[in-house]
Amino acid sequence: MTDTLLAMLPAWGPWLLAATAFLACLMVPVPASLLAITGGALVAAGDLDGVQVAVATWAGAVLGDQVIYFIGRKAGHFFPPFKGKRRRMLARARARLRRNGILTVFFSRWLFAPLAPSINLAAGALRFSHLRFTLASVTGDVFWVGLYVGLGYVFSANLSAATELASSTLGLLAALAALLIFGWWLRGAARRRSN
Q1: Is 185 exposed, middle or buried (0-12, 13-18, 19+ CB in 10 A)?
Q2: Taking a C-beta distance cutoff of 8 angstroms, is the pair 69, 122 a contact?
Q3: pLDDT averaged over the chain?
Q4: Which of 62, 83, 143, 158 has a beta carbon 3.0–4.6 Å from 110's, enabling a disulfide?
Q5: Confidence tier at 113 by pLDDT (50, 70, 90)
Q6: How many Cβ atoms from other residues are within 10 Å of residue 166's Cβ?
Q7: What whole-number distance in Å separates Cα of residue 147 and Cα of residue 156?
Q8: What is the percent of the chain with per-residue pLDDT over 90, rounded to a whole number?
Q9: What is the Cα–Cα distance from 61 to 121, expressed in whole angstroms?
């Protein structure tokens, strides 16, 4: 499937990038990041228009984020009422989402991209503010598009290097972010124990 989509990219360009970004947000296993990198390389080669590539990829991602958020919002009504421990866990999840939701949504767009569809669904189901979700989603998607299309543009002569660089860099950033979050959590737990 990846080879077919890559072969279609020069002809379908922005439309294909928008469609794959949209489908990736809906948990359909399509190589949206690889296509965005390749789209950037085609822009560098003069085969595609850079503004069209960036706007189409961004619009597809934003639309996909919105659709999965509203699916979560509608699906939240189908959950059975929680009691006891589950009700408290749900209340804590809502509180954390209210407190850190914008950052969670923002970083899930580009740093922890594989988690984005699940976070979108949870944000909708937990009734996270649509305005706050949209602001975080739109800005995070700008970073994702800029990162992947930009890498393809800069490394157009060697797409495999661009793909490896994106994977390695994001993996390192994700590991550092996880380490910082874990350290923050440990610090809070130590403070709670000392009180």
Answers
A1: exposed
A2: no
A3: 84
A4: 143
A5: confident
A6: 20
A7: 14
A8: 42
A9: 14
Which residue has 């939701």 as its token pair? Answer: 101
Give residue 24's pLDDT: 94
Report the distance separating Cα 116 and Cα 67, nearest Å: 13
Count CA atoms closer than 13 A to 152's CA, side-chain side. 24
Look-up: residue for tokens 């403070």?
Answer: 191
pTM here?
0.77
What are the tens digits of pLDDT across the range 140-192? 999 999 999 998 898 877 766 666 666 666 566 666 666 666 666 667 767 77
Question: 25: which 2 tokens?
Answer: 């947000």
Q: With the C-alpha atoms ordered 14, 106, 177, 27, is the resulting torsion angle positive or negative?
A: negative
- Lookup: tokens for 112: 């922890």
Q: How buried is residue 61: exposed, middle or buried, by Cβ count under 10 Å (0-12/13-18/19+)?
A: buried
- Both tokens of 156, joined, read 């157009």
Q: Which residue has the tokens 């602001």?
A: 135
Scan for tokens 């984005």, then name that residue: 116
